[in-house]
Please model this.
Amino acid sequence: MKSLVLDRIKSPLVLVDREVPEPDNGEVTISLSAAALNRRDFWITQGMYPGIRLPVILGSDGAGIVSQVGPGVSDDWLGREVMINPGWHWGDDPSVQSPQFQILGMPHDGTFASHVTVPVESVHAKPSHLDLHQAAALPLAGVTAYRATFTRGHLSADDHVLITGIGGGVATFALQYAVAVGASAFVTSSSPEKIARAIALGAVAGYDYRAEDWHQQLKAEHEPVSLIIDGAGGDGYARLIDVAAPAARIVNYGATAGPPSNVELFKVFWKQLNLAGSTMGSPADFTSMLKFVAQHQIVPIVDHVHPLADGNAALQRMRSSDQFGKIVLATDA
Amino acid sequence: MKSLVLDRIKSPLVLVDREVPEPDNGEVTISLSAAALNRRDFWITQGMYPGIRLPVILGSDGAGIVSQVGPGVSDDWLGREVMINPGWHWGDDPSVQSPQFQILGMPHDGTFASHVTVPVESVHAKPSHLDLHQAAALPLAGVTAYRATFTRGHLSADDHVLITGIGGGVATFALQYAVAVGASAFVTSSSPEKIARAIALGAVAGYDYRAEDWHQQLKAEHEPVSLIIDGAGGDGYARLIDVAAPAARIVNYGATAGPPSNVELFKVFWKQLNLAGSTMGSPADFTSMLKFVAQHQIVPIVDHVHPLADGNAALQRMRSSDQFGKIVLATDA
Model:
């Protein structure tokens, strides 16, 4: 099979030919049509991830057709169009993943390949309203956004939701979910083009977070925000605490801008704010996400499709944060 | 009436004789037996509070006997032993106080006096198991601790609770509540004497937060903490994020040590933590607190009783954080 392998930290991925791994007990092999990139893949190439084991095939997101079943798995799976839940061994506690939790693509070989072999319990039918490229764009970012907005953020139609860093995969799904439930959504970005695209998707307005007073503008022009979905942290975090309505929820699923430099705890307690951390999603989050996406016919925004051989260019595009939506690899190209 | 008046910021309170204010429509006058100090009183003397209007009689906590009723208030109140809910105009939203919220003792004249006149809806019967000095020690810290631990922190018997800065009024009530429900309670303090007193009250163990590795000790010796009640913030906040169990709640009701210098957002989202701000309490929190205190026969810890004339010495004791429990002023002394 064709596969994109990370041999060494901070080295380009290498396209190599490997044996298709045989499915073991309870496993299936999927002939992949597409994979999608996540920031995690980039962090791993930079050595910024705990427990890195090399060489590895990166990639947490994939969709394709079941081509082989292992012992104990029904033949009915053969030929079915499927996608993979990349979060494994979550454990029994819906509130947090277990210490055994792992994500497909490290240490288990991932989806930047023409085939992948995974436990059948991680395999789900492809939503019928999506093609295989769109389905590959959904799992990791889609479930992360679902847990952040619904399970942790308790999003409802009454909310005024602020989603920071629109264009990122999770942020874009969060916007689509917020619009789907009828909430009023606002976004931030340094790119007028991305703000325009967010508005086209249903956002009420967008703000350039580089403007010193963007949060004052938002407060002046609209009702205060009751829910904030943030993946950045960093210096901008203080603005989120400012812009949050009393009793608001701020959910963080990432810290691409590093730790917040200034958390004004006085405002946190006087405004009775709720700051929640969220990462990935439980199996229940994943199935709820699939149900929600089907019910609202949500189609993942695919930024660009690269052939598998161009995986390094795809990673570079994600590193520069130029994308709007998910970057997909056509693994059968 | 005797009253302790703040005339100027950063000046000592002055004992002056004033007319007892007549109760207006819906008000009662209480002949006070005792008042209690809160950190808020000290902040106001330092000018560190929004909207300060001078001169003012400080004091949010008081208990005594109703001596006069205004128009529209039943005579049945006369002679009853009562205490005051110092949080006024909370509003209709249980999740957060309204912009009209105010606390007795600024701008409305407070309890550092022989009499106080307040709306009858803020007046509650003294819990029968408490004397008037103990009852005066309860309201502000008692309701703040109740909201932080129960309404916001969802304390239950299964919790391992860490309470920082034991000895402070809110922290001490939080400890008493945690012990009352059967939770395992841990405390921090820089004082071995305070830790010993906390253990005598039912805490499992205490740690000196000045030790670089106190949080490692706690983790090594006990199960990880599922709930943290903190009024300090500051540099020590990072340790709280470290010591918190996965999915733990950290409730902040104050920031006496200033804003946190380092909030490792990565740990917040990877551990799926819940950081909640909490201040004061709603009317429902107050009545629930009174019910809980009566049910569990909780007796507020009175650190020291000063005569009203020694109010400045009492404020100084609070400033130095030497106290364990509440500092009370005998307003009838």
The CA atoms of residues 69 and 191 of chain B lie 46 Å apart. Chain B touches chain A at residues 93, 95-97, 152, 233, 237, 246-247, 252-255, 259-260, 262-279 (CB under 8 Å). Chain B has two domains: 2-138+300-330, 145-277. The two ends of chain B are 12 Å apart (CA to CA).
